[in-house]
Amino acid sequence: MAAGRHKADVLIIGAGGSGLRAAIAAQENGASVIVVSKSLLGKAHTIMAEGGIAAAIGSSDPRDDWKVHFHDTMFGGKYLNNWKMALYHAQEAPKEIENLEKWGAVFDRTEQGGILQRNFGGHAYKRLVQVGDRTGLELIRTLQDAAVAHGVRVFAEHTVTQLLRADGAIAGAVGYQREKGDVVVWEAPAVIIATGGIGRIYSVTSNSWESTADGLALAFRAGAELMDMEFVQFHPTGMVWPPSVRGLLVTESVRGEGGLLTNSKGERFMERYDPKRMELSTRDVVARSIYTEVQEGRGSPHGGAYLSIAHKPADFILKKLPSMYMQYKEFADVDITKEPMEVYPTTHYMMGGIRVDAETEATNVPGLYACGEAASGMHGANRLGGNSLSDLLVFGARAGAAAAKYAKSAPRRGDVADSVIAEAERDMLAPFGGTGDNPFAVQEQLQNLMMTEVGVYRSEEKLTEALAAIRSMRERARSARATGTRQYNPSWHAAIDLKNMTLIAETIATHALMRKESRGAHTRVDFPTTSEELGNVNVVSRLVDGKVEATFVAREPMPDDLAELAKGETVVHTS
Amino acid sequence: MNGQQRKGHPETIAIRINRGDAGDDVGRFEEFRLPYAEGMVVLDAVIQVQKEQAPDLAIRWNCKAARCGSCSAEINGKPRLQCKTRVSDLDLTQPITVSPLRTFPRIKDLVTDVSWNYRVNQTVPPMKYAKRPPAKVYQSDVDRAQEMRKCIECFLCQDVCHVLRYQTAEKPTFIGPRFIVRTAGLDFNPFDEGNRTGFLLREGGLGMCNITKCCTEVCPEEIHITDNAIIPEKERVVDAHADPLRAILNGLLGKSKENGSP
User: Fold this and answer.
1) Domains of chain B as residue ranges with CATH
2) Tens-digit pLDDT profile for residues A66-92
3) Residues in A touching B70 (Cβ below 8 Å)
4) Closest CA to A350 of A482, A543, A511, A140
5) Cβ contact (<8 Å) for B39 and A332?
6) Where residue A434 falls among pLDDT bands split at 50, 70, 90?
7) What's the Cα-to-Cα distance from A173 to each of A97, A434, A535, B253, rounded to whole Å?
8) Chain A residues close to B21, C-beta within 8 Å
């Protein structure tokens, strides 16, 4: 079949917050831009972000500034963050709030007529810029409209199956259009991976169906390195009941606005785990605390903890948390203005991802960039709430600008050879000749395995077992079968996703096995303490002849002035 | 609490899904039976059918949390989000029927081609940030814009709009409720100084709306589309284009720019 061919200076894979922000930046830097998205435009997982964008604009609390934000990010990340990224992030996030307002975002306001900010776990001051509990929608719509106004070309409902390389550098990508199943080729000297997270590798997750680790797998196969894959964030508060919505996110804003966590005995149990910060402790700590309460028999009827905001006036709750009100009322018959919610940890965010240069978001493969959740380094061992939306803005902008500059000077190449495309098409169509499993069945087995064996608490024994099981699933993914035609066929899409999911699951388990300590979101029951030595290294892996090869890589030491800033615990000020 | 109000559900449920390929706007119903699970929404049932009984069943969904607006369909004949429709709220003595949106052409099964909406969206004059933005903006100044910006683009309002149902996609004369809401969201933004009345009057076809409020009834975000977007925009258009005194005054004051262009 003759493939559709398209050319651009910068090709962006993913149309969530980071992809769209990168698209705007690349276009502003003179590049022609194509964005490819698995879903329709404006439906990406970013839309589900609730609480807000962390930026030290000092509107709700003038004591705040980038130095405090930098400190809180490093302390929250257990000092494993790429400190340069944490620095740029803290310094540049306020400017991104200004940009969003220029592009049409309408944030909640203070009584003094400024932008309203709210408290969040691990942030010293009221720092999260918000629109109630639907900030992600505001962000995606604003960026979507701005990208369209900037003239960005969007290929919606297209799946990328392979990155193209020529002379050791990136040359574009191949994929297919979901509607008809036709092959499409995008030729570009610079490619940005902005595909978000991996949540769907786990059975209980807050992530939308798209988060199947595609971009990580594409980059990994093309020679890029993955880093910090052991750090998977389990958000402390997901819905527990009914089963239909298990894992659905309950925003941290509930706690930010004063929500209280209790167990079946009515105790505010955070007293035992982090008496200084209580409910506004960091996510890793709160998630482990809820897990422990339930394990020790103090859980709610459906196996969670109680989270209540019912002590606040009903109109306050309806204004600040309208989506949470709807979610519990519609799905669980619970009125959160009167009753407590039941919550339990849910797989939420990948701190690890593609290893990038802090300034430019360039990977080790010339022409390949990554930003947002798909990249690693910014959040270290644990991400603070609100830092992901600011991350995707700051580093989306940097990646887009750097890729545009690179594309201008990159050597021009001829068209990608037909033989290369034909081979990519053969790979992509392999599931139609598959004689093996139903891909949905293997996916479900993988998700259950990851949840129980590579979840909140880990051990050498479980991880070793899991790794063997994942490797056999990687084999089965190769022969998973698609039934029916190429037109909009979910079994085909699932078979392709499954290859990505099993490969990335293997890197998570491999990294988790190597890090013999507990730090941030990575908790080993066999190594319960934090090792000073392992604080100086990141786990980095490469794919060599189909095998995941992981090593420790030494971290660059922080300069003295920043080390001084980063010192000490975060004290949360709620007023 | 927690779901215990809903007792006495059947052990299995029947669901009839309208299937077909591109060009087949009538399709055929295929019936599936599956176990009922507590709290189940229609999207759970459809996804389960896809996983276990019909792996090539085409559906569109992303968040399954009523945030993304991807899974719009007609359930027992009513336009709704599949993820927000509890199975236990439906009449289970008969099979549940699920059909694609009727206003847009079918791609396959429950997936329709909504690209027309994205093309219309590109014609809306974009945000024009004020040269001298207001120094102070209070919550009461942004409430109206924020209501419009709650829209999740599920296109259910477009699906039920009488004007859109009978207009051909090739020669649109009306942009539909979604894009009046979008335009209103820009017009109500205190930082915007664009002028979109000419757009609404001409390309927008605002006069075509005869205020039957069907759009408002189906909005899962409970945006008061007719009262808070369409009627205020109709008033603005009348003020700007039908009042001869105002038109002269605007001309004198240099406020005659169109489409938000500088």
Assistant:
1) 12-112 (3.10.20.30), 115-253 (1.10.1060.10)
2) 999 999 999 999 999 999 999 999 999
3) 39-40, 43
4) A511
5) yes
6) confident
7) 32, 24, 37, 53
8) 487
